[in-house]
């Protein structure tokens, strides 16, 4: 049996190469650590996507802030890069957006606030586009979004819309819009030709369900980090004040609905006349709220009428 030996504990020797390391190595390592710490914890203030003017929260969107990729936020103007044959577009960059700089005020022009105008478009009316381009709000602060149903009617509306867009967004036109997005619905919805068919009570559930899905898809696809205001403008609105955006924003309300009127031929007066048109875009009355509390899941309330439908 071997006897126990009293030896000192093992000690690891210092590497010869480590003892001779140049001090510059430590400096470079420290610099690299600082770089990684800055990359992961920096707040991105050096990335100027939304700038402040003076001491206020005014916003300005310049051409160099334009989106450089088709997948970038659609509320920013998109500049198509020139790609060689076979070249693949680079993925969009990771960008820090300071949402606290996006203001919503009663002076949208003074604060350079971006406006997103959204329109579900089943038919294209020249009067709609003519009225749109006459808006006095700075067009470089306006982004447009459209959603068009699938089918023959939708194809025609898309073609007519694109023809007007090509003229309005021409490089020679200094009054171009910031960006325009066109979406096509996956499903073909029935087109109700007459006003009577569109407003028939029996068609309201299916019609309004389709409209809600289309509006949600359009909003969630086009809403970007620079958007201050969203204006829903129906495709058959052909006449508004040029100052429509400023007029609505001046009330300084979160949600506001203007009066809508219709021009028509009054047989009694034998002349053209004007009458109130939109009766279903208002807050519910206490009576309507009371009825809604007693309604079943398959019942909908329309202008005081209850319709019972089944799936």
From TrEMBL:
GO terms for molecular function: alpha-1,6-mannosyltransferase activity. It comes from the Eukaryota. The keyword Phosphoprotein does not apply. The chain crosses the membrane at residues 21-41. Gene3D superfamilies: Spore Coat Polysaccharide Biosynthesis Protein SpsA, Chain A. Keywords: Membrane, Transmembrane, Transmembrane helix. One of its GO terms (cellular component) is mannan polymerase complex. InterPro entries: Mannan_Polymerase_Subunit, Nucleotide-diphossugar_trans. It holds the Pfam family Anp1. GO terms for biological process: cell wall mannoprotein biosynthetic process; protein N-linked glycosylation. Belongs to the ANP1/MMN9/VAN1 family. This is Glycosyltransferase family 62 protein.
């Amino acid at each position: 049996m071997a006897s126990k030996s009293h030896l000192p504990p093992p000690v690891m020797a210092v590497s010869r190469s480590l003892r001779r390391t140049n001090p510059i190595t430590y400096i470079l390592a420290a610099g690299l650590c600082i770089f990684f710490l800055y990359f992961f914890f920096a707040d991105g203030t050096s990335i100027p996507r939304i700038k402040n003017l003076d001491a206020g929260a005014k916003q300005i969107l310049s051409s160099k802030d334009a989106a450089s990729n088709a997948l970038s936020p659609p509320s920013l103007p998109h500049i198509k890069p020139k790609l060689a044959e076979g070249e693949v577009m680079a993925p969009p960059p990771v960008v820090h957006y300071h949402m606290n700089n996006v203001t919503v005020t009663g002076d949208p022009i003074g604060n350079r606030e971006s406006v997103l105008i959204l329109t579900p478009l089943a038919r294209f009316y020249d009067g709609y586009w003519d009225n749109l381009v006459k808006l006095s709000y700075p067009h470089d602060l306006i982004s447009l979004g459209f959603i068009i149903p699938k089918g023959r009617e939708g194809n025609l509306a898309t073609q007519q819309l694109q023809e007007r867009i090509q003229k309005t967004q021409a490089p020679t036109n200094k009054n171009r819009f910031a960006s325009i997005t066109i979406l096509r619905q996956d499903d073909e919805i029935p087109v109700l030709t007459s006003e009577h068919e569109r407003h028939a009570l029996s068609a309201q559930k299916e019609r309004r369900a389709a409209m809600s899905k289309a509006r949600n898809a359009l909003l969630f696809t086009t809403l970007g980090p620079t958007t201050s205001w969203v204006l829903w403008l129906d495709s058959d609105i052909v006449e508004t004040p040029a100052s429509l955006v400023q007029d609505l924003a001046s009330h300084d309300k979160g949600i506001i609905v203007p009066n809508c009127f219709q021009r028509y031929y009054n047989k009694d007066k034998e002349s053209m006349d004007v009458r109130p048109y939109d009766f279903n875009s208002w807050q519910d009355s206490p009576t309507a709220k009371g009825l809604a509390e007693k309604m079943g899941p398959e019942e909908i309330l329309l202008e005081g009428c209850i319709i019972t439908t089944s799936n």
